[in-house]
User: Which sequence fits this backbone?
């Protein structure tokens, strides 16, 4: 097992380097460049600034040297500074955005799992019942509704017509003048709509997965045996079946961890939440190479780690995998 | 204001008018003055604005986005400013004199100006600002005007003399730019690390508002400077909220989450005419400073033919565009100089909508529908097909492209549309002139000098003559117009320039869109003028009983 | 051979018996069929030119002449939604087709050959999965000239990894089955074995993945439209009609309601259909499952 984990870890390192190389290549070769963004389309702009910045950013050097320099700094966790006029270190920029995205996504994930497991289990145990049909349609409606449309509808309804919830942002403008508890409520109330939109959209994936997993498990012999032994349905399902059905779901959960820091572009844009999703779009659109690269490295590393942890954890629980390490992929 | 409206900083023009070189012409204020007695000016309350993009930094001289300049104009002052009628007026300079030969300018500075950290503002800061801007290590996008300067001499702590090697028409105007603090920035400028200086994060200026906080992509908060030399501004706090979705900004406006925003024409006409909105907000309308155009690649033999360009000008129904895209809230464009300014003339060739004339001109140029398929062909039977490109993120330009496409189809021209993401659009298509036709906008400054846009020497990839326009007579007008600092000497050059451009149609000037800002009706003291509404922001106030926020 | 056909017929009958019991899946199937008919017949059904601009009729509410109202350029929303169904469905079909072909070829190669080839392809899959999908989409969009085909290609080129894994997994098991070993032992070539024996047996989960991939592609296109990177004007897709209407939601609800509902019903139906097919084929085909339920930016 340790050997397996170690081997996977060693494979991950060249993979990570490969990812950074491909990313660097893609972003550098993509049409448009950072300088055309910094030197505006304006009759009064001075083109010589561009020359200056090309030198400062080292963009006049061949690509492999640029990449080599970037890599040698990146291994020391120095991702450089943003190309944008604020010139902030990349890690500072990411540090500013990460907490809110993480918070939103963790809450969202907890709610999704909290809802998806019972929905999935119940619709599996009552396959083709009315309950099954209703929840199936319900979760797929969530999946099928374009989220910016849903977001705007909810903003109009709850923010504008009813006035129950704030429309966008994270805090009210009089935040500093509120009492402590009022501040907490103020902050939470700003999170309600984004979380509802994201949760509704994400429910289908998990609950359907849960349902499938459960359907498979309750057809297994040992469940039949448990039933035959006269155990109550509650115990059979709640204890024996659920535990086994959760197994693959936990893997999926692990694999979706990196997504937690990626942030949702559409939700963050519509609700004006200064998170990682917005940072990524803005940096790609403005060709802010250092920020794009820093972002990708962090997401890629986390993905690889999560993959590894998920595999190892799965291996620990399911002894069949230990030997081969082959069948592990879905 | 400055330049094209960029996708990420697609600020409403109205807001951009805070930056003086902005808006002109007649003003229409739709203000149903609320019945509440205005009462005496009171201090306090907060003014909340929405901005579609975050600011780039807090040394606005290093940035080119509208939001940074809007915020910067509150924190920093210049020696001069533009007043309500777009005339240059004293700001940190009490008075100034211009030498008869236009080669030198002398400013007398106010003695009561202090930086926000308490240091006195002196002539050294003015000289430093020039040095900082011309320093090759300073990545300032708008340094051109400072590069024209020969020297800035400090005659005494409150007197500076600026000299020029040759007359420069925009000399005086350029000193309305932000003055930077020498005592905080000197070391950073020398090292070329201005972007990384604390000033870019926690700025110290001389302006009416002090910096309080900047939460990236969330908000920028400014507070009134209590010892501002022109008197403490009434409004205690100004907040710029970053809201990256236009739809959300409008919802926030309706829910009173923001106090002011620029409206789209459609919102102005159709979405804000109900009583509750009219009670809560005052709407303003004045001519904008940017024009939208359809430009041609003049190196393409098809578009090098003037008749083809004129035919397209006749085929486009500008009124349809104004009605359809701008809901009638725009003025027809006849040239690149802003209507209502001193250099403007409309006594130029006009292109009223006339598809028959367009077809005749095309036929004259050799383009006829030879095989009856509805598309014109040249004598070898090659159909006239081309692509109109524009940038993504600007709904207005996309709509214009869709309407123009239909009208060109009517006269037998087959146009495709491509909407391309901004960075790629500029770098891959516009700069290398790899396009057939483009739709873009361009801002006009307060000065009519457009040497960089139309002169035949300015056609390199990084220069602004994007169409590759070259006309010797136009060149002479552009050179003559910028060689004097005396307005009446410059007028004839610019009038002739507009005639030439109207005849040549290197681009079809479509329209100047109106600025349509709204401001919460609790704000009083707004004085609309050619410069827009924000020129006297320091005098705005909210009567005590209407104040909404505690501003500390 | 004859035995096989009969066996297949039996399978089909079994499949149909199980599938037709699933009412939701049946509903989904019917809606999908109707949608295809509508898309094909759009030019006959549409009362107006979907691109006909009329600035005198901007955002007119639903009326006798324009059943679903008009858009900000005065174009008929009904006609645009009808024509939009063609592009939206085409985007779904073509992009999923690309993803399926690419994924099947790579997955088959990896699963059949194993060893170095397998390792290489699976690392490629890992690499693609590690990139945020939005970044991939943007990068590919930046390289290709924008057009309908680009959007399809982009969605396809960034969505094949699920299919590849699926096919590989099928191959890994099928490779060890008697009939494959037998045909290899009598000297059948690799290609013959792959195409004749393994692939047909591995297609069931791929079919399911395709059915579930189409709605995901339609949603992705809608998400790209939100970012302004969707299908180029003047072509209507449900995604860009919806996006064009987002600034007018309160005064012109018809601009967003109808394309929104069109997306909703389509995506819902495809998903119900896809799940129904999967359940009927074999409940153990979970692997094909909701695995690649993908939404942009998530």
Assistant:
């Amino acid at each position: 097992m340790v050997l397996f984990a170690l081997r996977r870890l060693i494979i991950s390192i060249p993979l990570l380097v490969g990812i950074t190389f491909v990313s660097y290549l893609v972003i550098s070769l993509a049409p448009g460049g950072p300088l055309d963004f910094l030197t505006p389309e304006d009759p009064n702009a001075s083109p010589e600034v561009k020359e200056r910045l090309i030198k400062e950013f080292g963009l006049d050097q061949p690509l492999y040297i640029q990449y080599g320099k970037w890599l040698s700094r990146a291994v020391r966790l120095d991702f450089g500074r943003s190309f944008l006029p604020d010139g902030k270190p990349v890690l500072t920029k990411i540090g500013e955005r990460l907490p809110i995205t993480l918070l939103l996504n963790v809450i969202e994930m907890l709610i999704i799992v909290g809802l998806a497991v019972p929905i999935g289990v119940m619709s599996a145990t009552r396959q083709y019942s009315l309950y099954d049909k209703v929840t199936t349609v319900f979760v797929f409606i969530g999946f099928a509704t374009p989220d910016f449309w849903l977001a705007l509808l909810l903003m109009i309804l709850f923010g504008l017509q009813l006035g129950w919830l704030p429309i966008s942002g994270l805090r009210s403008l009089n935040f500093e003048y509120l009492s402590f508890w009022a501040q907490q409520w103020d902050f939470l109330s700003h999170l309600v709509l984004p979380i509802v939109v994201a949760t509704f959209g994400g429910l289908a994936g998990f609950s359907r997965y849960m349902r499938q997993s459960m359907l498979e498990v309750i057809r297994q012999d040992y469940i039949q045996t448990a039933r035959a032994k006269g155990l109550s349905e509650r115990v059979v399902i709640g204890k024996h079946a659920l535990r086994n059905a959760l197994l693959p779901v936990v893997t999926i959960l692990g694999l979706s961890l990196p997504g937690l820091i990626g942030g949702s572009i559409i939700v963050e844009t519509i609700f004006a939440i200064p998170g990682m999703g917005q940072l990524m779009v803005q940096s790609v659109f403005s060709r802010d190479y250092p920020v794009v690269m820093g972002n990708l490295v962090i997401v890629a590393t986390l993905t690889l780690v999560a993959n590894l942890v998920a595999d190892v954890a799965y291996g620990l629980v399911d002894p069949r995998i230990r030997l081969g390490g082959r069948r592990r992929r879905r | 204001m400055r330049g094209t409206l960029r996708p990420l900083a697609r600020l409403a023009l109205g807001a951009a008018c805070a930056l003086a070189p902005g808006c002109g012409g007649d003003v229409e204020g739709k203000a149903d003055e609320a019945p509440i007695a205005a009462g005496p000016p009171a201090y306090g309350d907060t003014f909340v604005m929405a901005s579609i993009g975050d600011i780039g930094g807090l040394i606005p001289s290093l940035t080119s986005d509208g939001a940074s300049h809007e915020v910067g104009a509150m924190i920093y002052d210049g020696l001069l400013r533009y007043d309500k009628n777009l005339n240059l007026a004293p700001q940190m300079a009490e008075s100034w004199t211009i030498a008869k030969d236009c080669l030198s300018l002398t400013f007398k500075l106010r003695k009561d100006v202090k930086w926000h950290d308490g240091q006195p503002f002196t002539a050294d800061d003015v000289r430093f600002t020039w040095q900082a801007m011309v320093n090759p290590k300073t990545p300032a996008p708008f340094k051109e005007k400072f590069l024209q300067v020969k020297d800035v001499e400090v005659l005494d702590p409150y007197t500076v003399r600026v000299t020029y090697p040759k007359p420069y028409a925009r000399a005086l105007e350029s000193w309305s730019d932000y003055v930077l603090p020498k005592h905080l920035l000197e070391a950073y400028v020398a090292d070329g690390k201005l972007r990384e200086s604390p000033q870019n994060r926690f700025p110290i200026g001389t302006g009416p508002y002090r910096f309080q906080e900047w939460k990236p992509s969330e908000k920028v908060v400014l507070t009134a400077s209590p010892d501002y030399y022109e008197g403490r501004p009434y409004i205690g706090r100004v907040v710029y909220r970053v809201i990256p979705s236009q739809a959300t900004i409008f919802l926030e406006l309706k829910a009173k989450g923001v106090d002011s925003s620029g409206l789209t024409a459609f919102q102005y006409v159709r979405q804000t005419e109900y009583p509750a909105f009219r009670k809560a907000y005052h709407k303003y309308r004045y001519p904008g400073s940017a024009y939208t155009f359809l430009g041609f690649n003049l190196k393409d033999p098809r578009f090098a033919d003037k008749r083809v360009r004129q035919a397209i000008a006749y085929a486009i129904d500008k009124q349809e565009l104004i009605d359809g895209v701008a809901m009638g809230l725009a003025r027809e464009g006849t040239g690149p100089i802003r209507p209502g300014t001193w250099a403007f003339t409309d006594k130029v060739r006009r292109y009223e909508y006339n598809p028959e004339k367009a077809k005749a001109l095309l036929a004259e140029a050799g383009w006829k529908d030879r095989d009856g398929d509805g598309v014109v062909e040249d004598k070898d039977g090659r159909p006239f097909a081309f692509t109109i490109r524009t940038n993504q993120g600007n709904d207005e330009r996309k709509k214009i492209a869709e309407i123009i496409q239909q009208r060109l189809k009517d006269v037998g021209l087959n146009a495709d549309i491509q909407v391309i993401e901004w960075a790629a659009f500029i770098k891959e298509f516009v700069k290398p002139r790899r396009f057939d036709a483009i739709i873009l906008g361009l801002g006009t400054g307060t000065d009519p000098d457009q040497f960089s846009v139309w002169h035949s020497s300015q056609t390199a990839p990084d220069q602004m003559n994007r169409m590759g326009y070259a006309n010797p007579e136009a060149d002479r007008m552009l050179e003559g117009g910028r060689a004097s600092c005396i307005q009446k000497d410059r007028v004839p050059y610019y009038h002739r320039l507009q005639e030439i451009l109207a005849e040549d149609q290197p681009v079809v000037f479509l329209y100047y869109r109106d600025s349509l800002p709204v401001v919460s009706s609790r704000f009083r003291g707004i004085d609309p003028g050619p410069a827009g509404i924000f020129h006297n922001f320091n005098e705005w106030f909210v009567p005590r009983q209407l104040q909404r926020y505690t501003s500390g | 051979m004859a035995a096989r056909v009969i066996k297949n017929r039996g399978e089909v009958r079994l499949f149909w018996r199980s599938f037709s019991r699933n009412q939701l899946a049946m509903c989904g199937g019917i809606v999908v069929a109707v949608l295809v008919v509508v898309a094909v017949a759009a030019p006959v059904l549409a009362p107006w030119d979907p691109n006909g601009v009329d600035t005198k009729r901007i955002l007119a509410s639903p009326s006798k002449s324009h059943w679903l109202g008009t858009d900000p350029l005065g174009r008929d929303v009904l006609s645009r939604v009808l024509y939009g169904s063609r592009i939206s469905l085409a985007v779904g079909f073509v992009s999923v087709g690309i993803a399926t072909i690419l994924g099947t070829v790579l997955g088959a190669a990896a699963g059949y050959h194993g060893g170095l080839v397998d390792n290489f392809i699976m690392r490629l899959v890992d690499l693609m999965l590690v990139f945020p999908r939005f970044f991939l989409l943007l990068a590919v969009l930046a390289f290709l000239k924008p057009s309908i085909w680009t959007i399809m290609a982009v969605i396809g080129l960034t969505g094949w990894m699920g299919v590849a894994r699926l096919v590989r997994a099928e191959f890994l098991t099928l490779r060890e089955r008697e009939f494959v070993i037998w045909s290899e032992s009598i000297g059948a070539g690799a290609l013959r074995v792959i195409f004749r024996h393994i692939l047909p047996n591995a297609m069931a989960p791929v079919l399911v993945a395709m059915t579930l991939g189409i709605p995901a592609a339609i949603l992705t296109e809608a998400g790209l439209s939100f970012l302004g990177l969707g299908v180029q004007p003047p072509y209507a897709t449900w995604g860009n009609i919806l996006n064009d209407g987002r600034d007018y939601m309160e005064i012109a609800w018809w601009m967003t309601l109808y394309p929104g509902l069109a997306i909703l019903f389509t995506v819902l139906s495809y998903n119900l259909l896809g799940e129904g097919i999967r359940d009927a084929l074999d409940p153990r085909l979970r692997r094909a499952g909701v695995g690649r339920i993908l939404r942009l930016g998530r």
